[in-house]
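User: Fold this, then the next.

Assistant: Folding the first:
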Amino acid sequence: MNASTRSRAALGISAAFILFAPFVLSEFYVTLMNYIGLATLIALGLVLLTGVAGLMSFGQQAFAGIGAYATGVLTVVYGGSPWLGLAAGLAITGVVATGLGLITVRLSGYYLPLSTIAWGISVYFLFGNLEILGRHNGLHGVPALELAGWTLDTGRSFYVLIWPVTLTALFAARNLLDSRAGRAVRALRFRATMAESFGIDTARLKLLIFLYAALLASLSGWLYAHFLRFVNPSSFTVNVGVEYLFMAVVGGASQVWGAVIGASLLTLLKEWLKDILPRFFDQSGNYEVIVFGLLMLPLLHRARDGLMPIFARLTGGGEVAERPVLAPALTKRIRPVKGDALLEVEAVRKNFGGLAAVQGVSFEVRAGEILGLIGPNGAGKSTVFNLVTGVLPANGGSIRFRGTRVDTLPARRIARLGIARTFQHVNLVSNMSVLENVAVGAHLRGARGTVSAMLRFDRSEERRLLHEAASQIERVGLGDHLAEPAGSLPLGKQRIVEIARALAADPLLLLLDEPAAGLRLQEKQALAELLSRLRAESMSILLVEHDMEFVMGLVDRLVVMDFGEKIAEGLPAQIQIDPVVLEAYLGGQ
């Protein structure tokens, strides 16, 4: 049985089990399956938030509590409809999550998880101290749901609501990650600077994922309230939040289906341990928590990426990037007239404390030329790149692109004007395929958002974006590596992938930071031929490079920097004999 057959068989068995579970399992295990479904919704949000976007949260149980208490108050206290309670819970959660997210997602390091613990504790005590919420006794008598005239008042009947909702959420999340928006989300965790440089609004995207995870938790809380028919603060403590995070991590923090595996394992394990352990200790107690913690240590030690990757290998379900099908070409920018001023850098300055990294540097890049920016290590070349692309703010001077001042704009706004770049240190998402990494470069050439992606309404645009990415990969000579993880390639080829990603943005100005570093002689020759072809197509290139032989035979003009200042500018032949350059950069004669 090949991998594809094993994968389909595993999926079929899983689908059949979920479909027939309420007919073959006892009421006890059907109830456990319902708990697994409810936990999966919250763990799924954490997969997207923590595992994919890199925003750790210990407070998702608070959003579940908001969903549960909103419908509890509306139905028990005011006699309203449970479905109105769902709308109210999602609305309140949306407002609260947006407010918290505007503050929380901007934090970094340990401040982010600490803040989620803080508001998780605050919301728990809010639940336990408000009279209208029943204080610590909670709310009892939450009505059963009615669906198409059918009262969902048993575990078996509620199963037909919980699991369709859970599966819909899982497939929607899977669709999201397999899209333009999903690639942007996956770039957030380790490559936020790169993402901004290709037009991705990282702050907005983080807030969106934070909000989506909160709404999933709120939906779970609403289902929980009407399933158990009561709401109590003890279900929404910080300990419960930690447990949900464990589910995501154990299943596979970056794997959508890992949410199901983690929720299933932890829910079943806790229930079994509650029955088994008291027999050994001859008394009741929360011994399962101790054993649970001890079991998690070797599990996380042996499977740091969770159980889902192991399951995928066993079933042949690992994801493989496929060569895109033919699709209509994306719209291209109109090229400026050759020789026109494209980029104008005027007396730009950048200080880092008392260190003047760039001091009054001025130069111009014209349409259709390759301008080399050279100088010894520490001369300030990469700092100039970061100033031009908005990664760093300038302390003085001005930078204009096609007449528009850009030194006051964020990186994502500059990218929209037609500037794309590579980085001095390779900036790829290593666990994404070469194709997906390059497709990130074409982000601004698409328009479909997260909702369209979840509903698969973005397929036509997605085919065009992937076809463009594949075309650029072929263009730079890496067609045979299209489906490979970018991190598995040698350093030199990773740099070429970065060039393909920049080309996918269809830039008017291409900034290349040491693109030939790590390349062999034949690869450098191929790169020089590629850059020459791009120049012939009226693309302007600003190039930083230390290989003088490579630079001198390629560029039209050179700007030389030393200690943050421009010391020379001219044709390659002039620079080679300039005594100031020879002394400062080439070491004198």
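Now the next one, as you asked:
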Amino acid sequence: MREWLRKAFGQISGLWTQWKPVQKAIFASVIGVAVLGIVLLVTFSARPSMVPLLSRPVTDDAVLDRIALRLDEERIEYRITGDNLVMVEDQRTAQRARSILVREDLVPTEADPWDLFDVERWTQTDFERNVNLRRSITRQLEQHITALEDIDSASVTLVLPERELFLEDQAPVTASVIVSPRPGSDFRENRAKIEGIERLIQLAVEDLQPENITITDRRGIVLNDFERMQDFDELELTRRELALMRDKEREYREAIIEALRQIYGSDRVKILNIDVDLDLGKRTTETEEHFPIITRPNNPLTPFDDSEFVLSIPRSSEQLSEEYRGTGFNPQGPPGQEGQTPPAYRDLEGLIGEWSSSEDRTNYEINTRRILERGSPSIRRISASVALDGRWERQYTEDGDIVFNPDGSIAREYLPVDEDDLETAEDLVRHAVGFSEERGDSVTVRNVQFDRSDMFAEEDAEYRRRRQIQMIILYSLIGIAAVLVIFIAFRLISREIERRKRLKEEELARQHQAMREAALRSAEEEGTEVEMSVEERARLEMQENAINMAREHPEDVAQLIRTWLMEE
């Protein structure tokens, strides 16, 4: 192995001496990147991606389901491994989740809360261990409490007295906590949250009783003095009852609007008042029912009920019979003494008596059912009043034009709701609120003319604005049409004037040309030499060329004349 290393090192040294500086720099960079990658790989592979929420797996499936449901409600991401170990993202999330589980009493019984002290150190004394235990518990409690959403900071002080030999000499374990709620939080008034922190502290410290826990805020007000909060609890209960009534009224209001707006429109329906009187008292009702005993159940294959029953069956029977025959009553006293027979019985001596008695008792058994009902909040009475508005129709002339009032507004006619529609609407409202005559419910639906002055004013203004826009567009189109007509007429007149002017000029040029040609011809006939100007010669040549072209190519000349005419 050493020989191989020495040989490899020699080869690398030889190559290093032969390489250029650029190659050496590349090799050193590759080695550095490789070392850095190995270090990062070891670092990140050794770091756990998720931390356990509890130190031990949860063996109870029901408890595991409740924990998962609570974490889903808090929107905490978690993962359950194959051995039922709950894992969360980081340590802070784990502390917050543990606080919630302790507050909701969802910590499994097999969970070990003392995992922090599993490491033993031989160099520590018992006193140091107790101090570390107290500091660890205090630090963990502060972390758990500050992990809650409603707490900014917390300070925990624990008093863990030493163990005494006799129980009556043992000082109690006490805890004092100072918390700073977050701004806008209802922690000071929410009893459930205060009790949650109190229970968290009680379960974290051994032998700590609730009466020995004091939770205060920065102002020194004791928050877990629940006797003082009794009045507040009653106010909170009243507030919840009123909120329940408001929710019920809102539900019925939406049901009424939903039932009527499809028929009459939402703008014609107005709920003047709806009052739901709830019976929020707690009551328990116990009912005992007696019903017949079925001796033969009903056969479902038969088209009729062939069951048989009896009202009762005998359970026990007792018969007594008594018969007596004798001489009547003859009481005697002690021997040698006068009898103690009363005078009334002494007169009956010597008479023959006869007595007969018969008694028959039969006990019957009947079916009995006992029902225990706990009353929940129920509706005592419902009162609802609904107003329906009629319809407004615009007035039109025979030609279909809108009729206007003298003030310029649109003329409208009000059509009230007839009685049949009111009865139908009242029936719909009764079904929407669950009307019951036994409760004494009251539902009233009336035709009420709503004040629509503002709406009609807006409609009139919108109609005037549309009419004004239409008139502006109409006048603009008329003006544009007039301008186009004037422009076309001006154009036609201008062309006609130009054409006549051109014709006149052509006629004059033709006359001059004719006069010039006549003069030339007369001069030629007389033999007089006439000297022509350069322009006259050019015009004459052009005329001759045009005449020759018209003779040779008449179609091209005709097309050229058409083009000139179209341009003109």
